[in-house]
Design goal:
heterodimer, A: mainly alpha, 2 strands, B: 4-stranded antiparallel β-sheet, 14 strands, elongated, nucleotide-binding (chain B)
Chain lengths: 289, 339
């Protein structure tokens, strides 16, 4: 190993700092997001697994209930057609729920200190970079599921439908990513974070309308499922898949407390994302002030 | 001109543990300042407070006149921090890490490119710049970390135990590098629990023990203050106690000799404190000869920083290290350092 240090050739004068906080925020966020994408590019197995897994769900779940009596899931639709929306939402949810893990590892390995001693315009750039990364992944996964569903005969929603689906996935990812990062900054270590993810992930899936319609469930579970934010993402997407003519006024869910329209479901999701961001703010401020 | 770093009456506790009780120090612009002390003395906590990673319970911290507590962002801009544990992303290449670092400090793109190239060259990292940093040796990782800390041309480079775990070659490369950047006008503040490192590098040193500064000055000032030269004497390789006692009573009466201690841990060798610049060495040898005692080995030396530490605390740095090692809770400290 060569350990002789050559003397400095250039003595550069201090660079003029740009006095544009928003430009600085973009620069930070871009660089932090770039790091996540470089990691993904060099470790593509996570992306491959992230695409294969929901496709397996789609095929296996569809096959599992293939012989269920017609009409069981309402409106003469097959289970394969029914399950697509659930898998899209569940996949995006799972990805966003794991968003805190890399941040937790950065904390544990001291890499986060590198960011915290830097004069960041706002430490929310760390949150923004994670959200951009997870949202991109989720949209790639969603696209794969939509294409596969089309192959399996579930049909393909029109452009407006796809746009609303994208919007729903982004809202869900934003809210859940925020919560996950909040956990990553609050919990003592990755073991605890993984434990929380573990006990949250599947129960929230089963307590939603991802796998079966609300009408299938006992009364108490109907209440739980119709209070679960995941249902408010699943039902509009499912409605778009099952109906050519949908509008914001379409009733997408018959909750025990009343009818939920497409517009109401979107409002709930927007509220969920905002509440999540606000909820973690004190925690982020303490860690990221 | 404001000092490069000014810390006044810093206090920080973690639960019931007072990591820093009262630390005040002033680092002048352009000097290498060493913070010497055993593990657990409060060095890292002091640096973490300085670098805005930890909020102090009390005290003032200024970097080139800017309060790190009231105006942390500006203070961060003036500081470069190289933590003890090398924090690199092993999936990124060295160049990519520096690019990220440049963006975090908002360097303009063209300037950053030029600066990254010159830092890679300065630290002889060009051949490794485009390899994943996970493949680097410990010395290379440290050099990359140094390049990152210095990339934005901070006024003060702060290093926590910069050579812990490095091989001798890498260690002296780090020392050379720190001297070089000092020559270019960068102020350097480093912690170490290696006496020789501070002795070789630091213009001035603060010795810190159990959360307090117990001595501060240039290394030679501190040594002069302790006073006296040190003579280490071995009558035999392993002398019997009686013989050592006899030698002590003979030597104690010599005018140049101030103190004689028998070191039972070192085969009953004798540690003498003698008047500096005296002919004590030959006087000791003559006295031993006259008493009919042999001499296995004898050496005279100026007091070391360890003697300074010993005089102030009543224990050697090594003893303090061993004592600290048994009381520390590494897991707990790891949690403290997580944010």
């Amino acid at each position: 190993m060569s350990t002789t240090l050559s003397p400095s050739q250039t003595s550069l004068k201090n660079a003029e700092p740009t006095s544009n906080p928003f430009g600085e925020f973009l620069q930070e966020t871009g660089a932090l997001a770039r790091r996540l994408f470089i990691q993904l590019q060099r470790r593509p197995s996570t992306l491959a697994a992230g695409i294969i897994q929901p496709l397996m769900w789609l095929i296996l779940f569809g096959a599992l209930f293939q012989n269920a009596p017609a009409g069981l899931f309402g409106n003469d639709i097959s289970y394969g057609k029914f399950i697509g929306a659930g898998i899209i939402v569940f996949t995006a949810f799972g990805g966003a729920l794991n968003a805190g893990l890399p941040v937790m590892f950065d904390r544990e390995f001291g890499f986060l200190n590198r960011l915290l001693v830097a004069p960041l315009a706002s430490r929310y750039s760390i949150v923004a970079a994670s959200a951009i990364f997870i949202a991109t992944l989720s949209l790639i996964q969603t696209a794969a599921i939509v294409v596969m569903s089309a192959f399996l005969g579930a049909g393909l929603p029109g452009i407006p439908g796809l746009a609303v689906m994208t919007f729903i996935v982004l809202l869900l990812v934003l809210g859940v990513t925020a919560l996950s990062l909040g956990l990553a900054f609050s919990l003592p270590g990755h073991i605890e974070l993984i434990a929380v993810i573990f006990v949250t992930n599947l129960p929230l899936l089963f307590a939603s309308t991802a796998l079966v319609p609300l009408s299938f469930m006992p009364g108490w579970l109907q209440w739980v499922a119709s209070l679960n934010p995941l249902s408010y993402a699943i039902e509009p997407i499912r409605y778009i898949y099952l109906h050519q003519d949908w509008s914001l006024a379409s009733v997408v869910m018959q909750a025990p407390f009343g009818e939920v329209t497409m517009g109401a479901a979107l409002a709930v999701l927007i509220g969920f994302a905002l509440v999540s961001l606000l909820l973690i703010q004190p925690r982020l401020r303490r860690s990221l002030a | 001109m404001a000092p490069a770093v000014l810390i006044e009456h810093l206090k920080k506790s973690y639960g019931t543990v007072e990591a820093v009780k009262d630390v005040s120090l002033q680092v002048e612009s352009g000097e290498i300042f060493g913070l010497l002390g055993p593990n657990g003395a409060g060095k890292t906590t002091t640096l973490r407070c300085l670098c805005t990673l930890t909020e102090p319970d009390a005290g003032a911290i200024e970097v080139s006149g800017v309060s790190a507590i009231d105006n942390p962002r500006l203070a961060r801009q003036k500081l470069g921090y190289v933590a003890q544990e090398v924090a690199i992303d092993k999936v990124l290449t060295g160049r990519e890490l520096l690019q990220l670092q440049a963006a975090l400090y908002h360097l303009p793109r063209a300037f950053a490119k030029e600066r990254i190239d010159s830092m890679l060259k300065l630290l002889a990292l060009q051949d490794y710049a485009d390899k994943k940093s996970g493949t680097y040796s410990g010395g290379l990782k440290k050099r990359l970390d140094l390049a990152a800390g210095l990339l934005h041309q901070p006024d003060v480079l702060v290093l926590d135990e910069p050579t812990v775990g490095l091989d001798i070659e890498s260690r002296s490369a780090v020392w050379d590098f720190l001297r070089q950047i000092k020559a270019q006008g960068t102020t350097v503040l480093l912690t170490s629990h290696y006496l020789e490192e501070i002795d070789i590098l630091a213009d001035r040193v603060a010795i810190i023990d159990r959360g307090k500064v117990i001595a501060c000055g240039t290394p030679s000032e501190l040594k002069d203050k302790v006073g006296g030269d040190r003579i280490t004497l071995r009558i035999r390789e392993f002398a019997p106690v009686e013989e050592a006692e006899k030698a002590r009573s003979v030597l104690q009466d010599l005018p140049a000799v101030q103190e004689v201690i028998i070191n039972s841990a070192q085969g009953n060798s004798l540690n003498l404190v003698v008047s500096p610049q005296s002919n004590a060495l030959s006087a000791v040898q003559q006295a031993l000869q006259a008493a009919g005692l042999p001499t296995f080995g004898i050496a005279q030396a100026r007091p070391s920083l360890d003697d300074v530490y010993l005089a102030a605390t009543g224990r050697t740095l090594l003893d303090a290290e061993i004592a600290a090692a048994s009381t520390r809770d590494e897991k707990k400290e790891r949690k403290q350092n997580m944010r």
